Amino acid sequence: MCGIAGILGHEPLTNELLAKVLHNLAQRGPDAQQWQGWSPDFEPIDTNPHLALLHTRLSIRDLSSNANQPMSNQNGNIWLCYNGEVYGWEQDAAFLKQQGVIFKTHSDTEFILHAYEYWGLAGLIPRLRGMFALAILDLRSFSLYLLRDRMGLKPIIYHQSKKGFAFASTVRTLLPWLPKEAKSFSKIGIDAYLAHRYIPAPHTILQGVQRLENGHYLHYDFKNHALTKHAYWHPKPSEQHSLSDVLDESIRLRTVADRPVGLFLSGGVDSSVLAQRLRAVDFNNIQAFTARFLDSDLDESQRAEQLAQHLKLSQVSINIPTEIKEDFERIIADLDEPFADPSSFPLWYLSKAATQSVKVVLNGDGGDELFAGYKRYQQHKRSAWRSKWHLPGVKVKSIQRKGFSKLWNELTLNWVDAYSLRFSGFSIGQRMALQPSLVIPPHYWRMPTNMPPSIDTLLAIDQLNYLPEYILRKADLMTMAHGLEGRSPLLDQQFVQRVMGLSVQERFTQPPKKTLVDLANFPDQLNPLLQKKKGFNPPLQPWLDSDLKSYTYDLGEVLEILTNGQIIASPVNSLVGAYYQGKYDYAEQLLQLIILRVSLEQYDELK
User: Consecutive 10-residue runs of the chain (607 residues): their mean pLDDT?
Assistant: First the structure.
């Protein structure tokens, strides 16, 4: 797990600039930081290059400096800059060795490099099982390839303009180099954040920066400066092997590391199943970490402690602070862009504690998106009868969160588009009230094509948007903020396709995820299906009433200035007033506006 960046400038890149870029990546890779540069003629140089690859390393496989990056092949004409983990590559590496390829490390990085050289891009991609954001610089064809993994666990952002081409793991990484016009806040990015609580790919908070979608790669041609985007993966149902065998293999592969491995364990289904299956793969040397919310009905730590005791796992519960003032702005910075998932905060604290003991953690991300575990799937399915039918008419502009305006705005959308309102930040009417000069679309999601109104369609929407850009982005940013690698066994590409191959009765059970739980053989008193689902959100009201209250002073006026008038002050201040008058159902929306304020203020300072 690492941080990556690359810059192809039409003017020389100073060593001071490159040092700033590396500094912005450092927390993603605390074990080594270095860069490799080239002249306009692609000759290696170490001062003021025009082209540079930069890398910060978190060492997980092969801890020696031989595995540092950027890494080149023997001839120095192919270079790799890579973030992530690829699993199960050893058999292919053994084949390459039989063909005379010399390996100097036992790292997946070197395997990717040699596999590309031997099989080319088309032969490499099917051999990449895992999570990755990688850049391959091929000086033989004057090409740069940027690949993002199938499910979107690892990020890639990029920029192209007259100043050149650049990419990185985070938006803030490139701020020292970006041209001035690229640093302006994106109107789409701001509205997308209000709509979804995050900014879906390909958009970002900056006008001149884009995010590569999951399952895609970019090709940059140095000769004509042409940039093309390609989709390389569309999941297909599989019926090969049993579900338990595929899951066990996925878990086993993700326990391979040269540093200690842990598990994020809640009282929920997904992590509980992983904890139990760890015994099936004969991996007991693991420590479990659980978030404890003091004096909260959201706390699941007692369940997790009981399960760990039953499984004889070493387990520790981490108290999530009741005061957040000292860490709030640091957490917002670590989120990179405006991002308003309240569970980011406990995950940040949990990762901070876990990294003191381990450098790899397994997590249960993806179970709900594979087995339709969220209530919103069944809720929205009930109205599938209306399909493309919707009411004509003008949408209602109102800062009010509930009532007639919300229902009317939903009914003016077709069934697929209306799903975006099942998990939204601000409704369409609220966004219209906040941004009266902006034309407001229903959403900014990428949508599947030619699918009937069904739960499969809703899952496909989430796997294009909510999963990679919300759930997995949060996991990546909050773990990497502390130099910790998160691994997601339920999102292994082969497990995903095997789940898709299940019958409807097996996959979409009531209660949800029964098929997954059946793999774990829980005793009744520990069966997570018999417990109420609690989620992972902290209690917001105490934070908003104390530590964060100062951010609400003149919140509307500040946001109006920061967004150059896109958001106007009066509806913001009305919402603030409504919350402090006792309408506590506005808590998450108020937090969302506070996060937007702090994040944009930080960007203005960094520009």
Answer: 92 96 95 96 95 96 93 96 96 97 95 98 98 98 97 98 96 97 97 98 98 98 95 95 96 94 93 90 82 76 88 90 93 98 95 96 96 93 83 75 68 88 90 95 92 92 97 97 97 98 96 94 84 72 93 97 98 96 93 98 96
Domains of the chain plus CATH, in order, are: 2-231 (3.60.20.10), 243-372+465-530 (3.40.50.620), 388-452 (no CATH), 540-606 (no CATH)
Q: Which 3 state secondary structure label does DSSP give 335? A: coil
Per residue in 267-291, pLDDT (tens digit) is 889 999 999 999 777 676 789 999 9
| Nearest residue to 454 via CA among 391, 377, 549 | 377
CA count, 13 A, side-chain hemisphere, 18:
25
d(CA 357, CA 287): 8
Question: What is the distance between the alpha carbons of residues 240 and 246, in angstroms, rounded to a whole number?
Answer: 9
Q: Do 172 and 336 contact (CB within 8 A), yes or no?
A: yes
Contact of 588 with 579, CB cutoff 8 Å: no
Nearest to 453 by CA among 510, 390, 502: 390
Give the separation between CA 27 and CA 56, rounded to whole angstroms. Answer: 8
Which pLDDT score, from 0 to 100, does residue 389 have? 80
DSSP at 206: B
Sequence-distant (≥ 6) Cβ neighbours of residue 515 within 8 angstroms: 243, 371, 502, 506, 507, 509
* Pairwise CA distance, residues 510 & 514, whole Å: 7
| Closest C-alpha to 308, from 329, 325, 287, 294 | 287
- 203, 48 contact by CB (below 8 A): no
Single-letter amino acid, residue 492: D
> Whole-model pTM?
0.95
Which tens digit of pLDDT belongs to each residue from 38-54?
A: 999 999 999 999 999 99
Cα→Cα distances 13→5, 84, 162, Å: 13, 27, 15
Q: Is 87 helix (H, G, I), strand (E, B) or coil?
A: coil
Residue 70 φ then ψ, to 5°: -60, 145
- Cα–Cα distance, 361 to 486 (Å, whole number): 5
Contact in structure between 576 and 591 (CB atoms under 8 Å) = no
Q: 580-603 burial by CB neighbour count: b if 16+ within 10 A, else e? A: eeeeeebbbbbbbbbbbbbbbeeb
**pLDDT tens sequence across 503-545:** 999 999 999 999 999 999 888 888 888 777 666 678 788 899 9
Residue labelled with tokens 């502009």: 397
Burial 85-102 (b: 16+ CB within 10 A, else e): bbbbbeebbeebeeeebe
